[in-house]
Amino acid sequence: MKKLIIATIMVFVLFSCQNSNTTVENKKVTKAKEDAPYFKPGYRYVQQIPDSLQTPEQQALLKKLAIVTYENLAVKGNKMVFNLSEKEFVAKGIPVEYYELIQKDLVNNNKFIKESNITNIDSILNESNKQIRDSLGL
Fold this sequence. Notes:
- The chain is mainly alpha-helical.
- The chain has helices at residues 2-14, 24-35, 56-72, 86-91, 96-115, 121-136, and strands at residues 73-76, 79-82.
- The protein has six helices and two strands, in the order αααββααα.
- Strands 1-2 form a two-stranded antiparallel ribbon.
- Strand 1 and strand 2 (79-82) form a beta hairpin.
- Helix 1 (2-14) packs antiparallel against helix 6 (121-136) and helix 3 (56-72) runs antiparallel to helix 6 (121-136).
- The protein is globular and about 40 Å long.
- The two termini are 14 Å apart.
């Protein structure tokens, strides 16, 4: 289970780049987002709980989160995208806080991809997906 969590987090942590519009309005929105805390204050994310302390429900949530992420993370125009709307994501039984975290991670990943001039993000994601598929037994 720990490898599954690490693989999922690695997908988000290793890559990062943002659609950089230069309009004043977008800069204000970006600045406001930067001032906000990354994790929702007071919310206890299951991936922050040690494996040995996780309940069976928390472990099931982690697995569901990994599967949904695996199935819906894609590359378009050398940017990572998540193919579910917030409503579709929540309908799968996962709290909205995780959707918000995925969106923040995608912004960071896409920013990193762009700044690092990474051009083969599709092959990197495919390789990562193989590892996730193996760890999930899919």
